[in-house]
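// run 5 | inverse folding | seed 20
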């Protein structure tokens, strides 16, 4: 009896351990599967993070490139504007005749103080000439060429001088011609910005003008300095 009971107890214990072992094995398998799933999810997360990081890096690079391109465009635009402004500043030329309309003479005056005012302006690039004062003011330093013409009738003295800042540079003169008198003169001058050029009658002399623009004054920039 005792032996039989012992045998039965051993059989029951073996069955119990077998069942427990199967459960443990099953649990271990489930844990392994879950661990594999977790590893797979971690790998996917890393991949997503790498993609996001790469995208962020690319966006930063694109932003930097855009900023660099913007700066380049702004620099080029400023350079072009500067070149255009410099080109326009170098376009200096004017031409004007004495009377805006009609005909007649100017002078003679006992004492001449003011410049001859050439009212009829045919060109004034750079706006250096002022037809209210008769004075050309150099807009920039450079080498300039000026020329002036004067006309008079029989028996009248004609004398005109060109001035630079109140100093005579050249003149024309005709002492009571037997017929109508004409004279002209020209000169190349180095001017600083702000220098003034104008013409004046001599005391006791006069000039004539009409729609043909016989008496005129003009000049232009040869090259800047």
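// decoded
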């Amino acid at each position: 009896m005792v032996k039989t009971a012992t045998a039965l107890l051993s059989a029951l214990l073996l069955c119990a351990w077998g069942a427990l072992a199967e459960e443990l094995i099953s649990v271990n398998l489930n844990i392994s599967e879950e661990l594999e799933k977790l590893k797979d999810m971690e790998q996917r997360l890393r991949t997503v993070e790498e993609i996001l990081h790469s995208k962020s890096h690319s966006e930063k690079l694109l932003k930097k490139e855009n900023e660099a391109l913007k700066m380049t465009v702004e620099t080029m635009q400023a350079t072009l504007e500067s070149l255009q402004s410099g080109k326009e500043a170098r376009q200096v030329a004017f031409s004007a005749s004495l009377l805006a309309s009609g005909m007649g003479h100017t002078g003679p005056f006992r004492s001449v103080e003011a410049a001859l005012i050439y009212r009829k302006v045919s060109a004034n690039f750079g706006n250096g000439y002022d037809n209210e004062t008769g004075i050309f003011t150099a807009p920039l330093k450079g080498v300039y060429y000026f020329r002036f013409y004067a006309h008079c009738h029989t028996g009248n003295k004609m004398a005109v001088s060109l001035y630079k800042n109140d100093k005579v540079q050249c003149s024309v003169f005709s002492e009571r011609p037997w017929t109508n008198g004409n004279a002209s003169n020209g000169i190349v001058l180095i001017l600083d910005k702000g220098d003034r050029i104008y013409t004046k009658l001599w005391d006791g002399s006069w000039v004539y003008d009409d729609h043909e623009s016989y008496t005129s004054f003009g000049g232009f920039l040869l090259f800047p300095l």
